[in-house]
């Protein structure tokens, strides 16, 4: 078990380091922040002073070394536009993002899991086909398209809900529904597939042959075994709470981390973008670690199995 935990932690640290490195290099090779922040009318002297102040005139490897050294000291840089600590700016936006994404996650779970289970238990029925058609539609429609359609229908035509911004619970409904529908569709399809695979196993037929009631077979055998692969997709959804809200926050002018990321990328605010990407990477990695540990809890054979190069 100790080896299982150590390998997962090592992989997590390596993943975070690779993500941070990739983001660092791409951001600096994609353009000069001095032009975006200072403006095209700024003098060459002002541009040079700006680059010198933020260390942009150093070689790339020197900037990279300073950046990682700062991370190990708990410093994630300062905003090139506001001047304040990038971490404080990002942390100030997290409550707004969680206020949006947590209800959306509950909506995904509350719709996707029951729909997937019901569709699997009524395979090839009209209900099953209806659930799958709805799931495919919800999965394939981009979130920004769905958001605009909901705004047009519920805000502009019917006038029931505000088109965006913050305020009361009414402002939450449209973005939460937009985020929740796509995830519920994915989860419904995944749960249905997992349930059908389990229901086709010999031990399910054996349990039925012993005279165990069907409801007891589903509760005692099908659902626990189908939960193991389902944990993966749920873990991905939890890890994607911040990154998954980028488009929806922009559509509905929601002042969360996703909206801040869009603004910071457009404004070439490197420290803020790097801080958000680091936060997203940590969230994804931590959720994957939890999933791995849950796997080991649900199926102890996984935590004791030897690691191979193909895994």
Explained architecture:
This protein has two domains: 2-91, no CATH class; 94-255, Orthogonal Bundle (MetI-like fold), CATH 1.10.3720. The chain is 76% helix and 0% strand. It contains 15 helices and no strands. The chain has helices at residues 2-29, 33-38, 44-53, 60-72, 86-91, 94-121, 126-140, 143-157, 170-199, 202-209, 214-239, 246-251, 257-266, 270-298, 300-304. The protein is flat, with a radius of gyration of 24 Å. The mean pLDDT is 82.
Question: In a nutshell, what does this entry contain?
Answer:
By secondary structure, this protein is mainly α.
Topology:
Blueprint: H1 2-29, H2 33-38, H3 44-53, H4 60-72, H5 86-91, H6 94-121, H7 126-140, H8 143-157, H9 170-199, H10 202-209, H11 214-239, H12 246-251, H13 257-266, H14 270-298, H15 300-304
Helix pairs in contact: 1-14, 6-7, 6-9, 7-9, 8-9, 9-11, 10-11, 11-14, 13-14
Whole-Å distance between the termini? Answer: 17 Å
> Which architecture name of the largest domain does CATH use?
Orthogonal Bundle
In the CATH hierarchy, the third-tier topology of the largest domain is known as MetI-like fold
- Report Rg: 24 Å
Strand-pairing-aware structural class: mainly alpha
Mean pLDDT: 82
Q: What count of helical segments does DSSP give?
A: 15
Number of structurally distinct domains: 2
Strand content: under 5%
Major sheet characteristics: none
The arrangement of helices and strands along the chain is HHHHHHHHHHHHHHH
Uncertain ranges: none
List how many beta strands DSSP finds.
0
CATH classification class of the largest domain: Mainly Alpha
- What form results from the Cα inertia axes? flat
Give the CATH superfamily of the largest domain: MetI-like
């Amino acid at each position: 078990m100790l080896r299982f935990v150590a390998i997962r932690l090592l992989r997590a640290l390596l993943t975070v380091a690779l993500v941070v490195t990739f983001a660092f290099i791409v951001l600096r090779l994609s353009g000069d922040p001095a032009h975006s922040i200072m403006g095209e009318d700024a003098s060459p002297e002002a541009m040079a002073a700006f680059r010198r102040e933020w260390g942009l005139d150093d070689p790339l490897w020197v900037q990279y070394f300073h950046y990682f050294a700062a991370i190990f000291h708990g410093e994630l840089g300062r905003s090139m536009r506001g001047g304040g600590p990038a971490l404080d700016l990002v942390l100030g936006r997290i409550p707004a993002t969680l206020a949006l994404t947590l209800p959306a996650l509950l909506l995904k779970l509350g719709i996707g899991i029951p729909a997937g289970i019901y569709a699997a238990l009524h395979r090839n029925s009209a209900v099953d086909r209806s659930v799958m058609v709805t799931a495919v539609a919800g999965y394939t429609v981009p979130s920004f398209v769905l958001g605009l359609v909901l705004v047009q229908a519920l805000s502009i035509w019917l006038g029931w809900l505000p088109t965006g911004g913050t305020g009361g619970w009414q402002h939450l409904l449209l973005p939460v529904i937009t985020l929740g529908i796509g995830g519920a569709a994915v989860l419904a399809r995944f749960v249905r597939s997992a349930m059908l695979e389990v229901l086709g196993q010999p031990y399910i037929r054996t349990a039925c042959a012993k005279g165990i009631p069907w409801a007891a077979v589903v509760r005692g055998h099908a659902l626990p075994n189908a939960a193991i692969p389902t944990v993966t997709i749920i873990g991905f959804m939890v890890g994607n709470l911040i990154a998954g809200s980028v488009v929806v926050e922009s559509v509905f002018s929601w002042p969360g981390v996703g909206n801040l990321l869009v603004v910071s990328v457009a404004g070439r605010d490197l420290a803020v973008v790097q801080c958000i990407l680091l936060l997203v990477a940590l969230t994804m990695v931590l959720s994957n670690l939890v999933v791995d540990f849950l796997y080991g809890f649900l199926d102890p054979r996984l935590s004791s199995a030897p690691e191979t190069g193909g895994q």
